[in-house]
Design goal:
Strand content of chain A: 15-25%
CATH superfamily of the largest domain in chain B: 2-enoyl-CoA Hydratase, Chain A, domain 1
Largest sheet of chain A: 7 strands, mixed
Largest interface: A-B, 63 and 55 residues
Distance between the termini of chain B: 44 Å
Structural class of chain B: alpha/beta
Number of strands of chain A: 10
Structural class of chain A: alpha/beta
Mean pLDDT of chain A: 96
Oligomer: heterodimer
Number of helices of chain B: 14
Helix content of chain A: 25-40%
Radius of gyration of chain A: 18 Å
Number of strands of chain B: 9
Order of helices and strands of chain A: EEHHEEHEEHEHEHEHHEH
CATH topology of the largest domain in chain B: 2-enoyl-CoA Hydratase, Chain A, domain 1
Bound molecules: zinc ion
Number of domains of chain B: 2
CATH architecture of the largest domain in chain A: Alpha-Beta Complex
Largest sheet of chain B: 8 strands, mixed
CATH topology of the largest domain in chain A: 2-enoyl-CoA Hydratase, Chain A, domain 1
CATH superfamily of the largest domain in chain A: 2-enoyl-CoA Hydratase, Chain A, domain 1
Strand order of the largest sheet of chain A: 3-5-6-7-8-9-10
Amino acid sequence: MEKIKCKNCTKDIENEIFILNLWVCPYCNYHHYINARDRLQITVDSNSFIELGKNINSDDFLKFYDVKSYSVRLKETKLKTSLNEAVIIGEAKIDGNDVALGIMDFGFMGGSMGSVVGEKIKILSNYCIEKNIPLVIFCASGGARMQEGVISLMQMAKTVSSVNRVKENKIPYITIITNPTSGGVSASFATIADIIIAEPDALFCFAGPRVVKQTIKKNLPPDFGTSERNLKNGQVDMIVNRSDLKNTLTNLLKLFKE
Amino acid sequence: MDLKKLEEIPKSYLKEILGSLSKLEKLKKIPFFTGIHFKDAERDLSRKIESYKKVERDAKRVWKIVELSRDENRPQCLDYINGIFEDFVKLSGDRLTGEDRSIAAGLGKINGKTVAVMGHNKGKDIKQRLEYNFGMSIPQGYRKSQRIMRLADRFGFPIVTLIDTPGAYPALEAEDDGQASAIAKSILLMFEVKVPIIAILIGEGGSGGALALAVGNEVAMLENSTYSVISPEGCAAILWKNPSGTKLAARELRLTSRDMLRLKIIDRIIPEPIGGAQNAPGRMVKIVKKYIIGALERFAGISGEELKSRRAKKFESMGFFGTE
Ligand SMILES: [Zn+2]
């Protein structure tokens, strides 16, 4: 039996149990990384997902080169993740309720937001307005896609404007903060939702702990940026275990239907 | 391979080139691997060195602009406010928890019309810089600017913003106070107001802290100002994992006013006096005043709804991607 070691409590977990437990440690409830496809599968009714914007691909328009070219990084990431970008979008049903759904994947270049993530959030926003169905986005991102220079910064404005139109149309907008959500995504569409749900143990901040520590030259409290600290600080509505998320979403969607 | 060439290899690429060279040396030792393949490989390497040299020269040119944008003798937000707006009244506080002095805000008149003005303060000496926290804002600053923007919206005053910040302040208190949500709400509000927004980058346009004041109907950059998603230093630390990549990062990030105009991120470049704004601060202020008057005239008579929808359309069309 294959086993994995919990990052938090270091106990060995049998792979099969780990997956059955939705990538959550059965011993300490630590919420581990889950990829976008698996997230989709545990969130929506089976066979209800219709993907949108599949044909939109990143372009190395700046010919950005650090120690590797952006186009090579993209190719490698696509192979590794079998995703074509850091977010998948589409229409789906959650316990029978229609939603426009976006799921980010931290595994794709750190879930960074570049032109494609921005465009997909815009497409999803337009779609939910057209169909008049709620917008639900699972966030996971280290921040902006540096390889797209200031264009990645502009995606913050682009996504905010897009979801603003959703809000103006009185369509419910819910985000789920997963580990980690920081930088450009946290300072744009993630934090202007009507309802913000966080998974346990998620890092949710603008500047990450490394940068903050460097600036203030002091040790940070151990719970810096965690969902739990954010709940205390009034930055999220609730913390919900992964196993309860579908129920919570269903409940909320029903409340908004009335 | 000519050994003289080795001295010309830019430092940042030395490791990579030396790696290729040692591979070539290994190839040389293979008995039947001689002649044409080796010459080709050598030629490719020479070409690579030439192109790296060009990149390095370009990086140095861009770095000069980064230094100019940060020059402490450049006119700053308060110089523009005092030199351009009559009867300026400074307003303070976010009415929630505090006052952030890194952002100056208030009401003033230009060309006989009342406008709301806000911008980042950097400070000119160490005392001022500490007072203004080096132009790095905290949630109280963003919320203060939101308050003044709402005020402007209610009374129909156009909004003028002056951007000059290394970025939002990465501190524990700022994070605890909801830095991310404060910036997001500033951006959101700028899509809601029905008055013209004129945004001018006067020095450093650093990341989310800059964008929080920069969602303009018209966005202009002073010739030697910069606009970037991350500082070259920060980018080098993450991608090059080494400060030696800083100048190269500055080049790769395409952060100059010319790059911004080419990428259609900004609408105009405001020319600076020869050698840079720091050489003739008074003239620079006059040039910016003329620009603001012109920009306000361009938006006069356009309905609030139209201004709002133009802003949305403009920013929602930003991005480059392929469709296949
Ligand atoms: Zn555990």
